[in-house]
Write a structure and sequence with these properties.
Blueprint: E1 2-3, E2 10-17, E3 20-27, E4 32-36, H1 47-54, E5 58-62, H2 79-89, E6 95-100, H3 102-113, E7 118-124, H4 135-149, H5 153-166, H6 177-191, E8 218-223, H7 228-240, E9 245-249, H8 256-259, H9 261-273
Parallel strand pairs: 4-5, 4-6, 6-7, 7-8, 8-9
Antiparallel strand pairs: 1-2, 2-3, 3-5
Helix pairs in contact: 1-9, 2-3, 4-5, 5-6
Amino acid sequence: MTDNSSATPITRGSASVNGAALYYETTGSGYPLVLVHRGLLDHQMWDDQFAALGEHYYVIRYDIRGSGSSRVGTGDFSHHGDLHGLLRALNVERAHLVGLGLGASISLDFALSYPEQVSALVLVSPGLGGFQASAAFKEYQHQLFIAFSRMNSDETVDLSLKMWVDGPTRTSDEVDPRMRARVRAMMTDAMMRPPQNYLAKMLDPLAITRLNDLKTPALVLAGALDISDTLDIADKIDTGIAGAEKVLFPDAGHMLNMEQPDRFNRLVLDFLAAHTPPDTSG
């Protein structure tokens, strides 16, 4: 289905991938660029990027399995395998990948599994397969589990917002309330879903042991107000991938694409412009 009501038309659809139905949207034209969202959120976290990047690229954003409008499906799967299936369904042979949090981890796993299909990586507030969480993060997970076991979705969302939007050094009133409300809405939707008994297969060997295998140009973006685990992962990726570039946003947290969209979009466009293959269609 194509929506022509906006300045840049948007196509919406659902692709059958590995036993699941993955919701996706596309806009723009030119070289393919895929936006991969973080856990507990969905494709809407890229609202400030979708049209802006679509002025320069053929942009694809989608909901990973079990998130947003995508269904869980059946059988074994991996998130990077799902992404591979989605691109095959959309007849995309090679693309730039931009991922945040879990989306960055998925993008890394995809690039390690299908290096010939990735032109450039933008890894934002990244996760990393095999990274050992800190004691502070494990305590957060414990508190989250307690709230979830009480079936208290408000408490669970509040804990998640404090961790992933405010960060360890800010109070909630120091964060843009509109941005915080947007994230709350997506997290609340995720929490209200029926319990889903599925577990994505991890890349084997884990990505943390294989970073130096990557030859793909990579830009690492992180917010200085994020949790220490994310900043440690950003450092590991920056030093592990030869030639990687890292930019630290001094006054942003985990969701830096939503906190500072103009700066984020400019950095991404500048980086990708240097790594987009020339158009040989003519």
